[in-house]
Amino acid sequence: MLFLLGFLLLMLGFAMIVLGRVPVTKTWTIPARVSRSAGGIFVGFLPVVFLVRFLVQALGWEEHVNPVVIHWMLFVLCLLAGGGWILVAGRPATSPRPRPAGDQPAPFAGDPISPASSAAAREPTFSPLSSPSSERPRPQERNPFDFS
User: Cα(3)–Cα(13) distance, rounded to whole angstroms?
Assistant: First the structure.
């Protein structure tokens, strides 16, 4: 029974890793990063079960510890970790809250700039020190790829 559930969890995790974004309902889609993280948790369940089974047998704890209990605890832990990650990090973003109507104006709601002052601000200003006649003309560079 546990192997079958582990295999289903493995397939679910693999699908979540490959697909990325997973639509759950019409309004809720699990983002790709969250889906792939939870898929990694689900895929990691079966290898962890095999590792724990090997360690219990290698250490000789089979007489003292029931491996089935450990496997079910790992199953529940992986299911809660992956599902919790999806529910906490994958929830849809909330809409921005409306701003309460207060006495304070918006921070940039001051007097608008007049078009005349904005045009004057955009005019280029030239320094009297830099004149085109004072600059030495640059010699023409030969193009190294011109073979004419």
Answer: 15
DSSP lists the bridge partners of residue 23 as 29
Per the structure, the count of domains in the chain is 1
Whether the predicted pLDDT of 121 surpasses 90 = no
Distances (CA, A) of 109 to 30, 64, 96, 104: 38, 74, 21, 10
H or E element in which residue 48 lies = helix 45-59
In a domain, 126, yes or no: no
Closest CA to 16 of 3, 1, 29: 29
Entry pTM: 0.57
> Is residue 143, in this structure, part of any structural domain at all?
no
**77: containing domain:** 2-89
